Amino acid sequence: MSCNKEIIKLMHKYLDEELSITEEKKLRSHLQSCQGCQDHFRELTRTVALLKSSSNMQPSTSFTANVMSNLPKEKKHLSYIRWFKSHSFITAAAIFFLFMLGSIFSIWDEDGQLSVSKDHNVIINDYTVIVPEGVIIDGDLVVKNGDLKIDGAVNGNVTLINGEHLMASAGNISGEIEQVNQVFEWMWYHLKRIGKSVFDLTN
Amino acid sequence: MDEKIRLKIRQVKKGDQSAFEDVVTFYQDKVYQICYRMVGNAYEAEDLAQEAFIRAYVNIHSFDDKRKFSTWLFRIATNLTIDRIRKKKPDYFLDAEVRGTDGLDMYSQLANENPLPEEELESLELQSYIQQQIMSLPTKYRSIIALRFVDERSLAEISEILNIPIGTVKTRIHRGREALRKKLRDV
């Protein structure tokens, strides 16, 4: 402490990393010759080291969460958009499913009218389709929104959608009888049909 | 890293709140340490640091993208802390010296989980002693010491953060260093 202020100023300049080469030489040569300044310089560098080393305090682990929960609320639609962006696969699947469901229901609702796949040789009486006696239908028969009465015979599968098979004399039908009355059954029937046609195509 | 933060800030500006989370995580230690250096109390430092981040978020549109984000953020934090200290009663400093044993509080908390080795206990005591010495300095020195020794900010940056001339920054660092040299000589 006994030396002049200029040397001490140089020490601080050194610690601020602002010392020129000539100034550094001056400081160095003085420190070699002066014990007092050497101690002063050592104490200063040690102080700096202590200050730097002891600054590793950390905030609580919930710091970020606390900040985030205290932020003013952002606009709602932005958070939705971001959710959709980050869950794009779920979003796509949900949209696809919605359209699927929509189209199936609309098809289901659409035809409330009775229809028969082959209307030759059959009699339509109100909501009942009758295959008269002596008539043989070659191929599959599909009846929508109506009941079916078979007095003759069908050489193939019979499918009834939203209707009943009134005459259970199964001997008249060479293939299978299938009745579809619920929307889910109907969907299942459609899926099976799609599956079948795909399968048929591959054959 | 800077580029990543820059991107996050841009997202925050567009209204994406969740992007701010990464910004907080990245800077929380530094902001907390700067506040702690100035108030000398862990609880208060945490409160101030959180407030600083919330203010940064609310005022994010006034941040100029071309400038350094940390400079802007630290400015908010130091201003907030200086304000808080100013509003305190004058007996705050006495109060703080007692609370300077905060390190001991923290030690006792940690001790429940696993006892600290000898050296760590010593270093905790040393840290709390150093902090006590910093607390005995006026606020204007503490803020500069916090910025200079927590994050090793350049003198020019400190002058920008605190909005004081670089010459004043230098003088205060020199005086602060000399004052602490005398106080920490016997450690």
Automatic annotation (TrEMBL), chain A:
Pfam families: zf-HC2. The keyword Transmembrane helix applies. InterPro entries: Anti_sigma_zinc_sf, Znf_put. Residues 3-38 form the Putative zinc-finger domain. Keywords: Membrane, Transmembrane, Transmembrane helix. The keyword Transcription regulation does not apply. The chain crosses the membrane at residues 89-108. Belongs to the zinc-associated anti-sigma factor (ZAS) superfamily. Anti-sigma-W factor family. This is Anti-sigma-W factor RsiW. It comes from Paraliobacillus quinghaiensis.
From TrEMBL, chain B:
Pfam families: Sigma70_r2, Sigma70_r4_2. Keywords: DNA-binding, Sigma factor, Transcription, Transcription regulation. Residues 27-89 form the RNA polymerase sigma-70 region domain. One of its GO terms (molecular function) is DNA binding. InterPro entries: RNA_pol_sigma-70-like, RNA_pol_sigma-70_dom, RNA_pol_sigma-W_bacilli, RNA_pol_sigma70_ECF_CS, RNA_pol_sigma70_r2, RNA_pol_sigma70_r4_t2, RNA_pol_sigma_r2, RNA_pol_sigma_r3/r4-like. GO terms for biological process: DNA-templated transcription initiation; response to stress. The keyword Transcription applies. Residues 129-180 form the RNA polymerase sigma factor 70 region 4 type domain. Belongs to the sigma-70 factor family. ECF subfamily. This is RNA polymerase sigma factor.
